Amino acid sequence: MNQAASNEVVIRKFYTAFASKDASTMASCYHQEVVFEDPAFGKLNGVEASKMWEMLLTRSKDLAVVFSNVQTTEKQGAADWVATYTFSRTGNKVINSIHAIFEFKDGKIIKHTDSFNLSKWFVSAFGWKGLLFAYIPFLKNKFKQQAKKTLTDYIAKNQ
Fold this sequence. Notes:
By secondary structure, the protein is an alpha+beta fold. It is built from six helices and six strands. A hairpin with a 6-residue loop joins strand 4 (76-86) and strand 5. This is Nuclear transport factor 2 family protein.
């Protein structure tokens, strides 16, 4: 199997595990020095990235994940995925479309960047109040800080 095909296997394993709520298999796809980044949590390094997925999976009651358009080369990859779930703070149904870009090292994901429209996510999650988070930088930054703090607290409790 060539490297591009091996990288595709890793991406498919990652998202199949995600859809099955299997955080440990997801973590096994990551290199120990992985760097993850998305609009909500910002940049996460190493174990933070794996613990973020674990936290989201353990707190989600009805998460559904569907992935598509997996493309890979010898060093990079990409995929589209959609997460559908109920946002626990409001009870609102969220459908979030995400584009992921990957880089690989030693047969594992070394860099994972998820891109999505955070403003649209705010409105889906919070209703009309989400417009405040979407368009007032102070509130948007406060949300990001809270997301990171929630993860830090989760990691401290689940070492």
